[in-house]
């Protein structure tokens, strides 16, 4: 079209030149100067018009070339039509990258020490832009590398649950977000957004306060064609039972097993509703938390669910074409880490089998009887004894003791009938993460 305009422009210019020359020839003396002026302005006008037109033409051409390239790229990607889910091996932590047709979302970013690993992994996948960044909850093994990720990539929306922590890790994420001119978006159950052609729906947290920080975890269901994935962060029985009771559509082909396979998550009722074909456990080799718990692995095994685990498989990649899901590796084992404790006590293994049978009951009953509410931290609530932030802050530096066989943690190594020589020392936060409950006698 612009070529045509150019041709017309040239023709008009030539005609004008000829007319002007004829005019000048006829009125040589009288109108010489006027004629010259007219001719010059005409020529200038035409030159300006043509150059403007041709440069515009160039821009248009470039844009149309670009958009053609973009279209062909998207057609190319569209023909692939896949949702790729990378459960990145970040040891005892979570970091999951979802890619659909050039759109990227990262759920959690591993521990602080995983910052570089996560960044490099994303770069290797060609990620420059994260449309969505989700910090499921403010524990270090989930948001540790988040500040680094925020500083390293173009970031769209940052999802974080409505709960704060006073840890340095959390502050780093808050500052990185602010410095980038972004802010946290708090999730609401039922909210949904698109990652390319994949539909993401928020299923949890529903309540405004929970006893455990883990239950604040943002739970997202991602649907792609006929396939679906469930991402649960560290959601425990309380949150799981809430989702079950709310009659949410929990059905998913792939379940990211909650809380690294801890016995406080993946309660039977929840697992039944999700009814997955595959499960992925993000867990560190020989971790101190005894994750994954044998009870959880037994539940998965009894339902013939193929389990993929980062401690055995490394990074697990699931690729969906909207109909079928393929994994980059063979399923892992159903071997729990419950018995591979550092504790050498022979009674550990005997008791762990009894704790298996009671673990579901514990989780269920704790979720049903959950009446204690924890006030959320407001900026000046550091003195509230029940605030999550404070208890969390305390837990980080606080040492607790766990008996060789018990399910509780204690503030002293000789609580009750506990054998102080066999008591295991642990960080309180770690003990909570591992699913231990505070002893009622000493707490
Ligand atoms: Zn956690
Ligand atoms: Zn965790």
UniProtKB/TrEMBL annotation:
Keyword Membrane: yes
Low complexity: compositionally biased ranges: 337-367, 376-394
Region Disordered, residue ranges: 332-443
One Pfam short name: Lactamase_B
Keywords per UniProt: Membrane, Transmembrane, Transmembrane helix
Bilayer-crossing regions: 6-25, 34-52
Top-level taxon: Bacteria
Domain named Metallo-beta-lactamase: residues: 92-285
Protein name, per record: Metallo-beta-lactamase domain-containing protein
Organism: Clostridium oceanicum
Lineage, uppermost ranks: Bacteria, Bacillati, Bacillota, Clostridia, Eubacteriales
């Amino acid at each position: 079209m612009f070529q045509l305009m150019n041709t017309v422009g040239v023709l008009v210019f030539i005609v004008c030149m000829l007319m002007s020359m004829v005019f000048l020839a006829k009125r040589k003396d009288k109108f010489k100067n006027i004629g010259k002026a007219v001719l010059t302005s005409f020529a200038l006008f035409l030159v300006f018009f043509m150059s403007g037109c041709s440069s515009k033409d160039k821009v248009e051409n470039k844009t149309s070339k670009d958009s053609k390239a973009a279209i062909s790229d998207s057609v190319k990607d569209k023909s692939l039509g896949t949702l790729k889910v990378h459960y990145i091996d970040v040891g005892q932590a979570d970091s999951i990258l979802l890619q659909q047709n050039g759109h990227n979302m990262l759920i959690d970013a591993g521990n602080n020490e995983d910052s570089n690993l996560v960044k490099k992994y994303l770069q290797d996948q060609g990620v420059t832009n994260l449309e969505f960044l989700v910090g499921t909850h403010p524990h270090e093994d989930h948001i540790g590398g988040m500040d680094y990720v925020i500083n390293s990539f173009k970031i769209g929306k940052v999802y974080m649950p409505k709960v704060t922590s006073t840890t340095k890790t959390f502050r780093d994420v808050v500052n990185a977000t602010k410095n980038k001119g972004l802010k946290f978006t708090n999730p609401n159950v039922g909210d949904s957004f698109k990652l390319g052609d994949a539909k993401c729906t928020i299923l949890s947290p529903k309540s405004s306060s929970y006893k455990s920080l883990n239950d604040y975890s943002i739970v997202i269901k991602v649907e792609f064609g006929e396939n679906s994935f469930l991402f649960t962060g560290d959601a425990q029985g309380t949150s799981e039972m809430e989702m079950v009771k709310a009659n949410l559509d929990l059905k998913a082909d792939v379940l990211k097993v909650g809380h690294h396979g801890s016995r406080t998550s993946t309660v039977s009722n929840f697992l039944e509703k999700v009814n997955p074909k595959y499960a992925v456990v993000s867990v560190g080799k020989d971790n101190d938390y005894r994750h994954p718990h044998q009870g959880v692995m037994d539940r998965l095994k009894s339902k013939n669910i193929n389990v993929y685990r980062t401690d055995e498989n490394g990074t697990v990649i699931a690729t969906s074409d909207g109909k079928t899901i393929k994994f980059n590796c063979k399923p892992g084992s159903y071997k729990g880490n419950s018995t591979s404790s550092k504790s050498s006590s022979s009674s550990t293994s005997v008791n762990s089998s009894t704790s298996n049978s009671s673990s579901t009951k514990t989780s269920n009953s704790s979720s049903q009887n959950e009446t204690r509410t924890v006030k959320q931290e407001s900026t000046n609530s550091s003195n509230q004894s029940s605030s999550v932030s404070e208890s969390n802050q305390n837990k980080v530096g606080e040492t607790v003791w766990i008996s060789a066989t018990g399910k509780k943690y204690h503030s002293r190594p000789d609580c009750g009938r506990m054998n102080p020589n066999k008591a295991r020392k642990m960080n309180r936060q770690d003990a909570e993460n591992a699913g231990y409950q505070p002893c009622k006698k000493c707490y």
